[in-house]
Amino acid sequence: xxxxxxxxxxxxxxxxxxxxxxxxxxxxxxxxxxxxxxxxxxxxxxxxxxxxxxxxxxxxxxxxxxxxxxxxxxxxxxxxxxxxxxxxxxxxxxxxxxxxxxxxxxxxxxxxxxxxxxxxxxxxxxxxxxxxxxxxxxxxxxxxxxxxxxxxxxxxxxxxxxxxxxxxxxxxxxxxxxxxxxxxxxxxxxxxxxxxxxxxxxxxxxxxxxxxxxxxxxxxxxxxxxxxxxxxxxxxxxxxxxxxxxxxxxxxxxxxxxxxxxxxxx
Length: 266
Prior knowledge:
Blueprint: H1 25-41, E1 52-60, H2 65-81, E2 89-93, E3 102-109, H3 120-130, E4 135-145, E5 161-169, H4 174-188, E6 194-200, E7 206-213, H5 216-225, H6 227-235, E8 237-247, E9 253-254, E10 263-264
Parallel strand pairs: 9-10
Antiparallel strand pairs: 1-3, 1-4, 2-3, 2-8, 4-6, 5-7, 5-8, 6-7
Helix pairs in contact: 2-3, 4-6
């Protein structure tokens, strides 16, 4: 998906005070390890994968769709030659007011990954030759995957489409949102889906429900089975936007050769 950032201020304090109990060395080590684990959990999910994603919205110029798609594939080839170890995925929006929009993205990262991207100047230069002449750039966003709100783990390469619904949550309605996501988990049962929270690039308190689907029938079945929970999610939001995205394996670099993408991470 180049697709809203809140800062948490941490107060400083002492581990020990006159009124605090004394810690033995083993207990103090355990406390410090626990604090480290909590900090890591904010950027990684339970499976150890990074929880940070970046998405980029791209519009092909009128009459330049073929040139853009061919040029984007050449740009993916640049990433492969440059030794990039990231997977890059592309989707096209199939319906709604944004139909025809392209969204590419990279998922499963920690914050530090973006400080070590492969050759940013070379990346920009190749974009300037192969992509930018045929496109106009839209917003880009930074997201955090919220596994405690989602369903079973998602394989981004497995399904041909995604039901993607964006919720801009009303002020003071966060508890309603959490309750609605819990209800969704109950009725969705063994379904694979993700929830992402927007951190940068747009309005705060924005969440995305990401449900991979194989067919239109699969999408309809999910919406019918979870309609009450979906209505509760919508009721917690000032606005929503629901779209169906199509996965473009032919414009993606995937992790599995079985996904039959344009490229595979080496």
